[in-house]
Amino acid sequence: MTLLRDERLAAAFDHAARRYDALVAANPGYHAQLRRSVRRLGLPRGGEGLRVLDLGCGTGASTAALTAVLPGARITAVDASAGMLERAAAKPWPPGVTFTRAPVERLARAGVRGPYDAVFAAYLLRNVTDPDAVLTAVRGLLAPGGRLGVHEYTLGGRRLDRAVWTLVCRGIVQPAATALGDGELYRHLWRSVVEFDTADRFADRLRTAGFDRVRALPLPGWQTGIAHTFTGRRPLPEQDAAR
Ligand SMILES: C[S@@+](CC[C@H](N)C(=O)[O-])C[C@H]1O[C@@H](n2cnc3c(N)ncnc32)[C@H](O)[C@@H]1O
Question: How sure is the predictor about 113, in pLDDT bands with cuts at 50, 70 and 90?
Fold first, then answer.
């Protein structure tokens, strides 16, 4: 199969939206690991008054991690899939959380304008056609010194990492998803990870897109060597000029 992109990917997520929360609930630590990645942004405790963008918010799991760690932040959550967004928006949210439907490639057209103090993207960037262009645009939406957090399936580079990923997908995720009618999306999931960057390569991609203080941090449990948190910063103007 070829990878799903753009409208085809949004349609696959529309179809999967109803069962998405149940599937991720079967992944031990899914929500705790998202919260861990948000904490790794290193933002002021509580996030009072901060403007935060959640890209590819889906049914709101990443948005919930942001509200849990940063209850005082104003959060704009964006997704291209109407079905996923509908699920997200139907949940109870504290004031200050808004949802917008837009592809991340066309944020300005949807009225999503910076500056933001932080941008968070969980399980998004290996799904976009041109991650470099999206990262450059994200950098432009951040205030100088603003933080980027990326929580993503990125293999660690050992043969074992790919073997574990394949075992989990073929042995658990794909059979469950196929039984629920979403086999194509979850075959895409496997392929999108093995064809995407390793963690080191993705960290380099962030540096090339103009982020500094880039770190790639492993996640605990079965996802060690399979998923990572990446953090980076839009440099301050004087540091930017020196680059
Ligand atoms: C795997 S889900 C992750 C959802 C959520 N961040 C979470 O942590 O559970 C990926 C989401 O990214 C969205 N997405 C993929 N490509 C996109 C794009 N180009 N623009 C906007 N959203 C996109 C999908 O619609 C989907 O809801």
Answer: very high
Q: In the chain, pLDDT over 90 holds for what percent of residues?
A: 92
Average pLDDT over residues 198-202: 98
Please check whether residue 52 is in contact with residue 118, taking contact to mean a CB–CB distance below 8 angstroms: yes
Span 48-65, average pLDDT:
98
Phi and psi, residue 50, nearest 5°: -75, 150
Name all domains of the chain by residue range, CATH numbers in brackets.
Answer: 27-157+198-238 (3.40.50.150)
Atom nearest to 34 CA in ligand 1? 8
First to last CA, the chain: 41
How many separate helices (H) and strands (E) can be counted in the chain? Answer: 10, 7
Q: Whose CA is nearest to atom 27 of ligand 1?
A: 58
